[in-house]
């Protein structure tokens, strides 16, 4: 669902996918190869929201702000299921873990990783490659090359997802029993952990 607000119409690049059960309102700009999942709410009513290329905002995330603020997700930012971003700047290639809350005036440097269920309080600043966890969240160590490679691999899956959604996704009625010829799904993706 895409909504204009006070004359601001969201801008969504044609290579990005916004699920019909997401709500994108007002002053929102979504770059190339972004994925916005069902239940996500991006409310650009009181301020702006900018998603640079390759970002993903997964299911049931909320992005909002106080009046006059612009929320910025830099290139390849990865916002995990159920996270809330309110008035913050998320650096390039960052990961925000599931159900985390990132409050107003927070600035995350590039390639930070925020653990699931973390709470980053208003005004906190974190240098690039910080591993951040807890409530209140604190830096516990540097993000390693191995961690950022794992994060980047996960984000690449989401960057390829919009094209797959445009070609492979369609509304359907459910089956009432499992068909005998139902294929295994393993051939579609490599398992991350064996």
From TrEMBL:
Transmembrane segments: none annotated. Coiled coil: none annotated. Keywords: Transferase. The keyword Transferase applies. InterPro entries: Hexapep, Transf_Hexapept/Carb_Anhydrase, Trimer_LpxA-like_sf. SUPFAM superfamilies: Trimeric LpxA-like enzymes. One of its GO terms (molecular function) is transferase activity. It holds the Pfam family Hexapep. This is Transferase hexapeptide repeat family protein. It comes from Lacibacter luteus. The lineage of its organism: Bacteria, Pseudomonadati, Bacteroidota, Chitinophagia, Chitinophagales.
């Amino acid at each position: 669902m895409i909504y204009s607000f006070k004359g601001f119409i969201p801008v969504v690049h044609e290579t990005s996918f916004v699920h019909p059960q997401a709500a994108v309102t007002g002053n929102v700009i979504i770059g190339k190869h972004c994925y916005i999942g069902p239940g996500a709410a991006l409310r650009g009513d009181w301020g702006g929201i900018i998603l640079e290329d390759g970002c993903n905002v997964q299911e049931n995330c909320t992005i909002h702000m106080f009046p006059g603020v612009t929320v910025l997700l830099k290139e390849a930012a990865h916002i995990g299921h159920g996270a809330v971003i309110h008035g913050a700047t998320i650096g390039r290639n960052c990961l925000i873990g599931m159900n985390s809350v990132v409050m107003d005036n927070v600035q995350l440097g590039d390639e930070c990783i925020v653990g699931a269920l973390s709470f980053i309080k208003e005004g906190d600043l974190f240098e690039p490659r910080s591993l951040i966890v807890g409530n209140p969240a604190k830096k516990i160590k540097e993000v390693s090359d191995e961690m950022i490679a794992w994060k980047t691999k996960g984000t690449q899956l989401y960057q390829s997802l919009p094209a797959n959604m445009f070609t492979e996704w369609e509304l359907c009625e459910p089956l009432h029993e499992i068909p005998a010829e139902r294929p295994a799904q393993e051939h579609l993706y490599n398992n991350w952990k064996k």
